[in-house]
Protein 1
Amino acid sequence: MYFYRLMVLSIQQRDILLRVFDEFVATWLETPDGRAGLALYERGVREGRASYRGILARLDRGDDVSDEILLHLLPYANTRANVKRGGWIHVTPGLQGDMRREYERRGWIKRKDWSRVANDIFRFFYAALDDPANLDAHVASFSSVPYIKGIQSGILTPILEAVRPKRYAVLNPRVAKTLHHLTGEKFSTSIGEYPTANATLIELVKEVGSELTERAGLRQFLAVRLFNLFSWWSVETSALKGKKVSRSVVDSSVKSDDHSSTKEPQAFYREEGRTSGGLGLEECAAILHTSVEQVKGWRDTLHQKKQMILFGPPGTGKTYVAEHLARLTVGETSGLIEVLQFHPSYSYEDFIQGIRPQRSDEGGLDYPVIEGRFLRFCREARLRGDAPCVMVIDEINRADLSKVFGELMYLLEYRDRSVPLSGDGRLFSIPQNVYVIGTMNTADRSIALVDHALRRRFAFIEVPPDYEILRRFFGEGSGSAEGVDLDGLISLLKGINSAIDDRGFALGISFFLVENLRERIEMIWRTEIKPYLDEYFFDDPGKVEEFRWERVEKRVMR
């Protein structure tokens, strides 16, 4: 689709930038100080990227990396004290000295909160670097943290630019001021405003980047970094002062993609991208239409074993129970819930890690080792301290579990140990605050066919048809069963399950837990119950005849 896009710079603004940039090249960049600045920038980028990868690896092993995050991923000035402390030295620093001491002195952050602050900073880095298309959501989530006062873009963006310079630019007061001089628009260095400023910076670099690197004679040095250095120099020398011009919009008809994000801010507690809240024991029991003792037993089993499977025939509410049990486990903590579904083609590469072809920034193909859902989930769990984090795996038995789980077969049982992963050899352990709830439809596959080694590592809880839930559901006002004989329906379901005579294939009750059951029961029976019975009694069609809607209608309708 073609539409009009606003250029960042008008022709006049572009000319001013290039003219002043030539002055920057001649008076600073080509001097010994300029070459030293370039070298410091390149060395800082290498060290920042290496530190980020190293912290990821240590995090996967289960190490405490709070100090490393604050010292090695935030940009410090090139002073003797910062070098001695091992800080990440950056050519355009956001921190002049000891961050902890300064922020505590100002009353912005309490000493006891630094571990949480470090983890939240890294969560933001990881989310932004892994999923740049949804930067707005990641920034909104980070901005909602109550104890991050004073942590601005100048502190947070250098590592983003170091790791993914094609997607992120450094935004500090000098860059914001330079943009203002060039465009006439004001940009805040608040992290909440970073997505807008970053989009402008990246677009500006696309417009003039090739000219900047050519004029500097540095085609291998990225233009986004040259602009950062230029901004520092231009503010120091006031080179752009007085050169502001009125905004002259230039429309350019180009083919472009809309990268705006529609995602809501990610809360501490999410379920497959949706925000939700925790549950109490009694509230959970009421929602599930069961007893507090039953729910407490499920919860205690999960806490003790850390991984459990709810198994039973179709329609017994296993997934519904699993999701609400996860909410009960997380409660009102900053924990996390993630829901995924296994299928026959689900693999180790999807769940843990594997090599995936990706297009490189230069247009070729790279073959990096990409992390799977469980590795990513565990990393987020580590960054949430002791808060319980639950992964719900629906229809867990549809995949080849021995192949999908791989090294997890060992780690599920021994949480205090690490093993090297087969993909890249890094050491990995499962955090103590990670819980796994699987659901298994016994009509698809019997428990007896599940790998014995895996069975030993999970607690198995049967969820059979509970006919009393029908009475509780409609008796507590959750739906209307007026015109339906619940006793007759329950008696009919019991008769069907007696004819099936196999607990693994019994007919559940969740088909009928709907609003306005009288108006919907015939369609439910014809489109869901009858086809299920046809499949089960395919070699004895006579049995299905007695359960056709025309024969059972009088038994269930008043």
Note: Confidence is low (pLDDT under 50) at residues 1-5, 245-276.
Protein 2
Amino acid sequence: MTFDFVGRWLGRHRDRPGITVDLSCGGRVTLREIDGRPVLAITTAPGADGRCEVAAVPLSEAERRELGQVLESDVLLAS
């Protein structure tokens, strides 16, 4: 999967709720469900051309629960 394809794929699901953490570097980490499966989406800060790159990592249920506990506890993630 290329970053452009993943970005378009995730873009179709922007109306679905998820847990999002904005990073101090300008990037973003989002935990959400896409097509019923937990996914960790990582977005880079905009580059010089204004574009961001996006990657999606499928998670197991155990990984989703563990990561969800961290993201929901208002812990500041270091970038």
Note: The chain has one domain: 3-72.
